[in-house]
Amino acid sequence: MPTNHIQVEDHPAHEDIEFLEARIIEHNYAGAGADDGRGLAAFIRDDDHRIVAGIAGYTWARLAEIEFLWVSEDARSQGLGSQLLAAVEDEARARGCALMIVSTYSFQAPDFYLRHGYDVIAELPDCPPGHTNYYFKKPL
């Protein structure tokens, strides 16, 4: 039997992370009895096809999770984030999802999600130090 060595890495290979994600997804599908996971993303691009704003996450087992929402600095306060959020909420509903979930830090966008009908379900204070990590949900 080979000797196991733990190797801590700052910059793991993308393929290694994909391997871990695939194993967790397999486990989750079996445990939840749902294998309908799909990526969910939307982008707004400029005339040169550069991403100006984007949102990404996934749907699975009648829920949708937002993992990333970003709007470039010079395009903020124009409603792009709201448009992206509405687009993925609509798509999640079309996929049969009943719930949206997202987490955000106090220095990111908690007020944005509150304005869009999300409810705080948990707060982790001083994470990172001096800030709060908020967890939100919204029934669809």
Mind sketching the topology for me?
Blueprint (H helix, E strand, L loop, with lengths): L13 H19 L5 E8 L5 E10 L2 E9 L8 H15 L4 E7 L4 H6 L3 E7 L6 E8 L1
Parallel strand pairs: 3-4
Antiparallel strand pairs: 1-2, 2-3, 4-6, 5-6
Description:
This protein is α+β, with helices and mostly antiparallel strands. The chain has 3 helices and 6 strands. Strands 1-2-3-4-6-5 form a 6-stranded mixed sheet. The chain is globular and about 60 Å long. It starts with 13 loop residues before the first helix and ends with a strand. The mean pLDDT is about 95.
Biggest sheet details: 6 strands, mixed
Strand order of the largest sheet: 1-2-3-4-6-5
| Low-confidence runs | none
Rough shape? globular
Strand content: 35-45%
Count up the helices: 3
Number of DSSP strand runs: 6
Gyration radius from CA atoms, angstroms:
18 Å
Q: How do the SSEs run, as a string of H and E? A: HEEEHEHEE
Whole-number mean pLDDT? 95
- How much helical structure, as a percent, in the residues? 25-40%
| CA distance, first residue to last residue | 51 Å
Supply the helix-strand structural class: alpha+beta
Keywords:
single chain; globular; alpha+beta; 140 residues
Short description:
This protein has 140 residues and is an alpha+beta fold. The protein has helices at 14-32, 80-94, 110-115; strands at residues 38-45, 51-60, 63-71, 99-105, 119-125, 132-139.
